[in-house]
Amino acid sequence: MPKIIIDGKEIECRDGIPVLQAALEAGWDVPHYCYHPGLSVVASCRLCLMEQKMPHPQTKEMGWAPKLFPSCQTPVKDGMEVRFHSESVENNQKHVMEYYLLNHPLDCPVCDKAGECSLQDYSEKFGNATSRMVEDKHKNPKKDIGPKTLLYQDRCVLCTRCVRFADEIAGTGELAVVERGSRGEIDVFPGEPLANDLQGNVVDLCPVGCLLDKQFLFRQRVWNLQTVPSVSPADSSGACIWIDANDAGVHRVRPRFNERVNEWWISDEQRHGFEYVNREDRLTRPRIRENGQVRGASWEEIPAHLRAAFAGDGSAFVISPMLSNEEAWLLATFARQVAPNAVLACGHVPVEGQDRSFPKGFTIRAEKAPNRGGVERILAHFGGPQMSFDELCGQAADGTLKAVYVYGGYPAAWITPAQAEQLSRLDCLVVHDLFDGPLTERADLVLPAAPWTEREGSFTNCDGLVQAFERARPPRSGIKAEGQFFQELCGLPGLFRSAKIRTMLGESIADLAETFQPRKEPEHAH
């Protein structure tokens, strides 16, 4: 690995990366707008300029070159020496920041980017407190450039990250810089709105409040949100995400860097598919049918009811791929405890169309379940009678099965009327799900489920990678999180902690015990 000197300090860095990236990874706060490690380098913002030692053309002695160099466009080379803390570099930063602020509106109090805007941060740290601008600011219009995105052109710094993303990552090229000089602005081509399936990433890429997500617009102030790392359940890829939530609900999902899965990007499905967790019609209380009448039930009475209903032959458990590895293992453990010959079945696996790949490898998976691989691995470990969900429905209809526990947990309707009719012929049908539907209407016992934002655990993606996710919010009042409930069913004491259960799981299934941790992005990267 090459070693370079930055501001008099020697650091070791990855080979082939720009000096800017090396400085960011080493902890330097170098201002930059146009640079992003996932996009091509254009060196247009001029904020990251540095001084570099070069050999004198005549004496060949090393000295500081008379001009500044773009650190984003200069690859590291063993032994090179650069500096960012010098009079000429700091003067350049102040002048460039003044240019960016000449026409920028003073609308931070109403800007969605306030609190996480690099223009705010840079103007305080690298700019001037006052402006010499006395003429009227040039005002550009707001633009509705797509079904999910607004463009506030008067805030734009023309870093062109959004343009390069549409060209290089999405491959759709809807965005362009029109006009030149002070008249330059971002726009879409006529009749070509920004509507590709990755378009939400331009909002994350925008270093200022120019590109905004309509779903999040004016919804929350970012300093009122708590951010937790998670894994998207929207498909089987296992994309890493950040969940931004507070007591009022989940408000935003953003991509989290993962070098082995999604890099810096997520699909719009992964970004906007969380709204079901905030729905008011979610199930929030257990209910039981007795003598033809439905009544509310307490969580304390349910374990005894399940043990009585599922003891003996003719019972089955449907373990959904929406469950985490830890939850699936606990539920399968309980099934084997109460009925050693119980049938275990992997739940319905939604599939929509075909996998869709983009120019640089990002793929939207057709399989819309986050943990089929993990559930199937756990079922294979437990062995015993197993079958597909369709086969289980058939045996329920012909009377072979007597009692079935069905866990759903899907964000949308997932069972067909025919399957619901087949399962309704059972002596005992237990449904554990998020919403009422054809199956809960026929169930003898209905248990409210918690979405993944209210749970913790790990998913195994389509490539066998095990990744952990954290709880963003506590379960709604009346709901007991699946991990806690299944742990109590198994007779294990204490509070559910996914890491503790994962250790127990690893004693029998070693490949599910270790989770992959993505490399952290540098603190000062934008």
Question: Can you describe this structure?
Answer:
The protein is of the alpha+beta class and 526 residues long. It has 3 domains: 3-97, Ubiquitin-like (UB roll) (Roll); 107-127 and 134-218, 2-Layer Sandwich (Alpha-Beta Plaits), CATH 3.30.70; 287-512, Rossmann fold (3-Layer(aba) Sandwich). The chain has helices at 19-25, 87-101, 118-125, 161-168, 201-205, 268-272, 302-310, 325-338, 372-382, 389-397, 417-423, 482-489, 498-506, and strands at 3-6, 9-12, 49-55, 62-64, 69-70, 81-83, 142-144, 149-152, 175-178, 185-188, 211-213, 226-231, 240-246, 249-255, 287-290, 293-296, 315-319, 343-346, 356-357, 363-364, 403-407, 428-433, 445-448, 457-460, 466-469. It has a 7-stranded mixed beta sheet with strand order 16-15-23-22-21-17-18, with helices on both faces. α8 (325-338) packs parallel to α12 (482-489). The longest helix has 15 residues, at 87-101. The relative contact order is 0.10. The model has no long low-confidence stretch (mean pLDDT 93).
Distance between the termini: 25 Å
Helix content: 10-25%
The helix-and-strand class reads alpha+beta
Average residue pLDDT: 93
Poorly predicted sequence stretches spanning 5 or more consecutive residues: none
Count of helical segments?
A: 13
Instruction: Supply the number of structural domains.
Output: 3
CATH topology of the largest domain: Rossmann fold
